[in-house]
Amino acid sequence: MDAEALRTFVTVAETGHFQAAADELGISQQAVSKRIAALERHLGVMLLVRTSRGSRPSPDGQVFLPHAKKVLAVVEQAEQAVRPGSRPLRVDVLNRRISPAQAVHRFYRSHPDMELDVVTLSTENAAQAAHAVLEGTVDASFRALPADQVPAGISVERLMDAPLELLVGPGHPLADAPHVSPAELAGHRIWIPGIMPGTEWAAFYRTLSEAFGLSIDALGPDFGPEALMDTLAESASLATLVGSGDRYLWPQAHDLRRIPLRAPTPVYPHVLLFRSGDQHPVLTGLRDYLRTAGPRTPHDVWAPEWVEAA
Amino acid sequence: MDAEALRTFVTVAETGHFQAAADELGISQQAVSKRIAALERHLGVMLLVRTSRGSRPSPDGQVFLPHAKKVLAVVEQAEQAVRPGSRPLRVDVLNRRISPAQAVHRFYRSHPDMELDVVTLSTENAAQAAHAVLEGTVDASFRALPADQVPAGISVERLMDAPLELLVGPGHPLADAPHVSPAELAGHRIWIPGIMPGTEWAAFYRTLSEAFGLSIDALGPDFGPEALMDTLAESASLATLVGSGDRYLWPQAHDLRRIPLRAPTPVYPHVLLFRSGDQHPVLTGLRDYLRTAGPRTPHDVWAPEWVEAA
DNA sequence: TTACTTCCACAACCAAGAGTTGTTTCTGGT
DNA sequence: ACCAGAAACAACTCTTGGTTGTGGAAGTAA
Q: Which chain A residue's Cα is nearest to B56?
């Protein structure tokens, strides 16, 4: 029992002619004849009375007609329920303060009709996030997934390189530097509490420290960004790294300084993961937006080799 | 969008395994895989999450699952609505007194579960009744249709030969004869009021009268069977012909006599018309019943040559 | 009647689809 | 490292649904 057969029967019943139904459906009269014959054979009853001036439903056809319409309506509802774009796009971000979340927010403000939800998966690492995308728990996820860990069925697009900035208190030796190079950071203590082993951002900071000979300290409990900033503000030697687009609320209150890194500029490569072939219009809209209207990446950037090339 | 595809999806969702669904549906695992893939391609979304321990519905699949079940239920209702046997069989008879109506009545009494309606079409003749059958207005009709007038799509089965009997009043010369041959009726006036030209029974009586040299008088208005019997009872010369199984209520009250015709026995050949391939169980039941348990036809019968042979 | 038109079914053909078996890949458990 | 289970992929066959061309039945007009 095929929906097209039912649609054909309904069309013939409504037009009264096989040829008219064929025109409406864009097929030949003979195809209509075959479809009707197959449907009648399947049901075991004659649905249409053929005359030399057209066709009309037989008594059984009159009984069947409303049922056929009902089936078509229910089928339409079923397709509508899962049509790509019928529900908001679910985008996963590591946390709501980092630059991808800000970019998604900008996208939403400029496209209010594009429905989306920003969620934060409690996944261990990028590979697990990729699985969540694959399973449909979320539709897309901003991660820094190593290129050789991209599972089948997942597409990646490196849409945002977030330049790193040094965050220091007013007593720090670099507090008034207009910018600083990664190599100049060697010897300074960089403290990033709360790094969880096995995550892709742990791997990012490890690769970064190895590339420039930095000492990045991940020890100590993570009491949250406020405690971190309190500590930074009072310390003359501690510093931390943040993304230039990250949204921290109170740096001004502590007189903290953001010092851009240059020559080269280390960037955190935010890669968008999504199901290959996903046709959700908000997904394509978001990708287009970030590709064109996203923040401009400076020249002379550094990123781990293991991320997918742009 | 095929019902089988939906059924496959529902089965996989319920069993959790492609192979289990394949077993349940009686197809191969690969066929299930193809059906699901085609459905997902049609809808544009992924419905099932494949793992190494089976499959479960994705978020979109969970949304789609109840819709799929709904479609299947509505399809089942639609098929049920026109399933052969789901409505009473409509059988047309010339009128409710003649022997086919009586036989159908006996069939119904011995098979109370076989639902049927006995109707009387106001059609002109057998050819029009055949059209009514073809169009589904009725499912079957007892007629005496000439073999060369059977339209395409109509099957015929000669199920009942109704022997004719002479109906006379007590004063008629043949009133006390145990039986009479058609040839002996030559010279007697046989009066059958209400014969309508163009009907197949008019043709029957014409053929009969020509075959045996009878004078069958069709003149005069038809005041109904009661008036006919009144007239017969009072006449010493008038006679009429009735089927042996016909049900006339008051012959005894008028002291009318039924004289069987023999050597040969003229029979009215009641042929059942029905749509070729009609699978209505009551139709097959009725045909079986009449073929086996119907009234026995005497030897040495006469019938018009133009009816279909048994 | 005879032609002509309309409407649908049938026949032959062709490409796409749906089924099959055999094989591969992936994953999780031992 | 190996093995077992699950689903996908590949190659093939055969059915199906589409096409074009044609034919038959019924109404219509000359």
A: A135
Q: In whole angstroms, what is the distance from residue B171 CA to residue B187 CA?
A: 17
Contact A64 B78 (CB under 8 A): yes
The predicted-structure confidence for A144-165, as pLDDT tens digits, reads as follows 887 777 777 788 888 888 889 9
Which residues of chain B does A3 touch, with a Cβ-Cβ cutoff of 8 Å? 1-2
- Using a CB-CB distance cutoff of 8 angstroms, which residues of chain B are in contact with residue A44? 82-84, 279
Task: Please write the tens of the pLDDT for every residue from B193-218.
Answer: 777 777 788 888 888 888 888 888 87
Q: Judging by beta carbons within 10 Å of its beta carbon (0-12, 13-18, 19+), is residue A253 exposed, middle or buried?
A: exposed
CB of A36 within 7 Å of some strand C atom: yes
pTM of the model: 0.80
Q: Render chain A in DSSP notation, one character per residue.
A: -BHHHHHHHHHHHHHS-HHHHHHHHTS-HHHHHHHHHHHHHHHTS--EEEETTEEEE-HHHHHHHHHHHHHHHHHHHHHHHHSTTSS-EEEE-S-TTSHHHHHHHHHHHH-TTS-EEEE----SSHHHHHHHHHHTS-SEEEE--BGGGPPTTEEEEEEEEEEEEEEE-TTSTTTT-S-B-GGGGTTSEEE-TTPPTTSHHHHHHHHHHHHHT-EEE--S----HHHHHHHHHH-SSEEEEEETT---S-TGGGT-EEEEB-SSEEEEEEEEEEETT---HHHHHHHHHHHHHSPPPPSSEE--TTBPP-
